[in-house]
Amino acid sequence: MSEYRGYYGKALDFLKQNKVKVGDTIQFTTNTEQVATIMPRYEHSDDSHIVVKFKSGYNVGLNIDTIKKIEFVSDMSLEQTKNNTIKHNSKLPKILLLSTGGTIASRIDYRTGSVTPALTAQELNASVPELAEIANIDAEVLFSEYSENITPDQWIGIAKKLDSLAKSEYAGIIVAHGTDTMQYTAAFLSFSLSGFPKPIVLVGSQRSSDRPSSDAALNLIGAAKFIVKSNPIGVFVAMHNSENDDYVACHLGTRVRKNHTSKRDAFETVGDKPAFIVSNDKIIQNFTDQYFGNKDYLPKIGLDPKVALVKYHPGYDPKIFENLIDNGYKAIIFEGTGLGHVGRTMYDVIKKAKIQKVFLGMTSQCMDGRVNMSIYESGRDLMQMGVIPLSDMISEIALVKAMWILGTDAKNIENIMIKKIASEFRE
Ligand code: ASP
Prior knowledge:
Bound molecules: aspartic acid
Oligomer: single chain
Shape: elongated
Radius of gyration: 24 Å
Number of strands: 21
Distance between the termini: 57 Å
Strand order of the largest sheet: 9-6-10-11-12-13-16-17
Number of helices: 12
């Protein structure tokens, strides 16, 4: 029953005896007296805890044996808050929150118990009230997808929407996005909107706001503070910097990777510190190659998805690669071994690809470091055949960059792939 969603056994009896249910605001006493809203329960639930959400947006599991007193305060408080008009503070800057879906944009409908992947300004204000103290937030839902379903066409849609906001009154734009493919979208926006005159900050969450220890609130607060206090030009990904609720890391959109399946600090800047770190009261800048309002904005929104990313491994069948050429792929990015190699069994198909004018670029499957193809004979052979080393570009960022170039300036792909457009190479 949705009124007690996820509760059973002792915890269910406890709620019923105290005449409270999911969605109710309660006043309870453990060591201190506090007010919070009862949340539904999900996986790993035991029957000795109830989960409550505090006004700050944080969720906590309470052992029912530690609750000395519990009283009903009001029904569906979030629903009520939702209907309140958000107070506008004319002294604060404006930020647009553009939602594309993902865990961060999902929330519980207390009436049906289902998760709805749409976030309105009112809902956002209700779940993260601190935002209203940092900026006036407008919110818009662009689409609602988990990011594994996002296609390159949708990157174009996001880029066009952002481009239309280049001269708007917003100090910056937060893009709520699923974390699985966030670095791909961030990279596309970095290339296609190079020099965009306001910060664009992609924010996700590893744990949805209805779970204990959700990271959504802090990531949003960190992104908003970053926009208001720092105002750099560029595309960033703002996520937890540690497992704790203390710092938010703002990574460059072309140097970031999701490196953990579930940890809150899953995102890392490859081979470096995050570009910026946002703490409660200050912003630490680690990255110096950053523009602050003085780069030309040259939007180039386009792509051709006929690019493949090939992870070479012992036993890789060259026919798979040949199929790509035969199917009209125009660029292939290798994730080679070590310094940038593939085995000699690949040489014939590589020659065939070059005859057909397929761009071939080399990145490494190592987690860090730079491709160097002049050390070993195999690297030199590959370069001789026309494989272009892509320095320390992250392989999936190279994939996105090649798609973008093919859609905007295809004939110059060899030059542009090795030219720095949006800090995709480290110095
Ligand atoms: N699979 C989800 C997505 O990428 C996970 C998340 O939102 O973090 O959209």
